[in-house]
Amino acid sequence: MAKPQRNVQFQHRGSNGHGRRRPSVSDVSEAASEPGSPTKDGMNGKTEVSQEEYKLMCYHREALPQRFDMESKSLTLHQVLLPPEPSEYEKKKQTFITRTIWTFVMIAAFFFAMFSGHIYIIGIVTAIQIISFKEVIAIANVPSRANNLPFTRSLNWYFLGTVMYYLYGESVIYYFKHIVLVDKVLLPFATHHRFISFMLYMIGFVFFVGSLKKGHYRFQFTQFAWTHMALYLIIVQAHFVMNNIFEGMIWFFLPASLVITNDIFAYICGITFGRTQLIKLSPKKTVEGFVGAWVFTVIFGIGMTNVLMRYSYFICPVDDLGANFWTGLQCNPNPVFIAQPYQLPAWTQYNRTFYIAPMQFHILVFATFASLIAPFGGFFASGLKRTFKVKDFGESIPGHGGITDRMDCQFIMGFFAFMYYQSFIAVYKASVGSVLETAIQGLTGEEQIELVRGLTKYMVNQGIVSDVVMNCLNGELPLRR
User: Fold this and answer.
1) Contact predicate 305/360, CB 8 Å
2) What is the DSSP letter of 373?
3) Beta-carbon count within 10 A of 280 CB
4) For residue 27, which of 62, 75, 59 has the smallest C-alpha distance?
5) DSSP 8-state code for residue 285
């Protein structure tokens, strides 16, 4: 047998070092085992290892002996020198820390905004609306097609702006008639608000039809339908949350806190004694956690209601957007917040009278809805994410995913709170704004002057104003023909 030759170079391996075989971990391990030099001599050829690589290799042999010994035959020096992958425990730990930090940041920001005034909470709700819309639109977007249709994203945002203009305008006109209807600039926009909103929408509709492009019809109509679904599920429902703020801070804060409490206790009860799966869309949800959270949410709702009813800042409707918790608000409380006498039935044989505010009974309905119905908003969102194979709607909140992931139950709860309040709690009576609206839109100029004269005369007779005011009006206002 011929003796194998040494120091033979093949043509495809140059002598410049670029074609040299990359040192494997086995080569380097042999080199590292020889003291005194970070190089290895063998078979008249040298596999050089730099001083830095030698030190790192020694460190890895000390720190990760199992990885080094078991995988050394298949891993290269470069792979071994890479930082080790964090364990599953380390990943969960880091996620938990990040999630906890941002939870406290959000709680602090929320309470700061709530105590600072209604206008700040309105700003937060507006930001949540816009970001949630952006996240929901994004999961159904196909970038390759959207790039060929430059107006797709523009139309999405145009429809968002149009719908928000209509809804916000409706709220401002309804709750601030006494300001809007007497302003020379705002009056035309207030009286023709709905027509202006309709025409703005029709402009977007016509532009959409004009932008239809052959070969993209299905994609464009899918985006159109998806945009309108997002507008309804997010923007319209959040609009009712906005109205809750105007009716009184309690109608915003209480439903939101009930949903948060239910979510917390559903998790605690689920991991403590949960056994039976509730729904396949969310495998970790259990019947025991679902029912246990309901009980704790009812208890929390009764206690929190008893606290909030003591502060006019929470129970009074908004008449001054500049008010805050320290300046407070003044109003005649809704009867639902005033304790009423209740007597036990005769068959109980206990002749005792209890004073309970009707709100304590209403909160049972709120807590039940927050526990048994509102979570299905979260299940709906889970099904939506599974449809598009995404874990979260976005990454707006580190450790929590997107804004929509945290607000999926809040939207439906806010919608319910508004409908329940308007149906069973609200007290309808004439307001300055409603009287002004009727006078401005239903009376002619001469009739309005006569109304002013009659109202002034009434106030003079009641001693509210002096005769000087009446004389001044008679001198300045023309007589009715």
Assistant:
1) yes
2) T
3) 10
4) 75
5) E
Centre a 10 Å sphere on the Cβ of residue 304 and count the other Cβ atoms it contains.
Answer: 18
The 10s digit of each residue's pLDDT in 113-168 is: 899 989 999 999 999 999 999 999 888 776 656 667 778 888 999 999 999 999 99
Q: In whole angstroms, give the CA distance from residue 285 to residue 478.
A: 73
pLDDT above 90: residue 251: yes
- Helices 118-139, 249-273: axis angle to 10 degrees equals 50
> Rounded to the nearest 10 degrees, how much is the dihedral formed by the CA atoms of 101, 104, 106, 108?
-140
Rg of the chain in Å (alpha carbons): 35
For residue 82, what are the β-bridge partners?
none
Closest CA to 105 of 426, 302, 400, 480: 400
**Cβ neighbours for 236, distance < 8 A, ≥ 6 positions apart:** 163, 167
> Would you say 254 and 301 are in contact if contact means Cβ atoms under 8 Å apart?
yes
List, in order, residues 6 or more apart from 349 with CB less than 8 Å away: none
d(CA 126, CA 242): 9
Residues 216-241 have a mean pLDDT of 91
Amino acid, res. 73: K
Burial string for 24-62 (b: 16+ CB within 10 Å, else e) reads: bbebbbebbeeeeebebeeeeeebebeeebbebbeebbe
pLDDT in tens, 431-481: 777 777 777 777 887 888 888 888 888 888 888 888 887 778 777 776 555
List the Cα angle 96/101/103 in 5-degree steps.
Answer: 90
Cα 77 to Cα 56, 162, 256, 373, distances in angstroms: 10, 60, 55, 57
Which residue(s) pair with 340 in the sheet?
Answer: 356
- In angstroms, rounded to a whole number, what is the distance separating the alpha carbons of residues 99 and 454? 64
Q: Which amino acid is at 102?
A: W
